[in-house]
Here is the input.
Amino acid sequence: MIKVGVLFGGESVEHEVSIITAVQAMNYMDKAKYEVVPIYIGKDKNMYTGEALRHMETYKDLSGVATKAVEVTLTKVGENFVLQKKKGLFNKVVETIDMAFPIVHGKGVEDGSLSGYFETLGIPYVGSSMLGASIGQDKVVQKQVMQASSIPVVDYLWFYDFEYKEEEKRILKDIKTLGYPVIVKPARLGSSVGIQVAHNEKEVIPAIEEAISYDEKIIIEKMVKNLLEVDCAVLGNAENMECSLIGEMITSNELLTFEDKYMAEGSKGAKSGAKSGDSLSTAGFKIPALLDKKIEEDIYAFAKAAFRALNLSGVTRFDFLVDKETKKVYVNEPNTIPGCLAFFFYTPMGKSYKKMLDELISGAVKDYKKAKKKVTSFESNVLSTFDGGAKGTKGAKAGTL
Here is the structure.
């Protein structure tokens, strides 16, 4: 039986969303194949483990979670990946895991921080590499990569907070040239946090100030006319990609909001546990979306192209923007660890959540074994004959190393 360490939480504005997604996933994992080890990352960045962390009731008072769990650190001891008790005179091993399954959202965790840590430890893990996760979290860089791969994105501009303070007039002029209405976003957040629509300069100034309160990097996107927002998930890796059904976003606002995604009817059911939380997943979506055949084909083609170009793996949900009049399709952004892992895009296709989780875990194991076959270091030690004196330095400059 494989011991799967499920990591969730983190110092992120999407902390609570991560908890919902993780608790749901842990309860759906095949108990005959996997032993689940919950690893909660508090807003204080400390890690905790314990059986209580598998239940939603534990998180009703976030300040008291630490009292119901054991504070630990994830490290490698010999050939084992262990959770050691953080406090005390001895490094007592509380639990061991065979692989990591990060179910986190947002800056500081989903952005490559955790995957880089896993790669340093050498532990197999589910999801995108540090590179893919980092690109996927930055709305500016991902657009630059997609543009380089001829994947359509909306017109945009971006800047840092200090640049706005120094060159506010120029930036506002550039936004006017881009053309209103625009969407103002923190560049490295998710779940529609800090996002606003601005129809003119009077509205864009407070929207920028709001976005700056969340991030140092801001992106301004030209809003698509006759807008239709749809989503499509991609499961697998660059070699084997499986697209989900396409879902249409349902909202009474100009764009999908945090409230649409997580505070809609159905979120009450999610709080009581994984099985009853399915209603949260489909809040805000109509699956499958009723689309023109050409639009559907473009979405599938661009989803696969973006998945490959952005170096992604695991499961990613892509947001698309469609102009209903011109039928032009734009890739908006990827969600490299989407809420509820986007399982509800696959269940109408006959793929259960349990099966999807199994595919994610088995796929990560295969990718880990494949990567282990690559050459990552040399047995020879060039330093064994290195002379640290003047002669050795001269040799190094000559290119002998």
Notes: DSSP finds 13 helices and 16 strands in the chain. The first helix runs from residue 15 to 28. Residues 262-280 have pLDDT under 50 and may be disordered. The chain has three domains: 2-125, 136-152+225-369, 156-222.
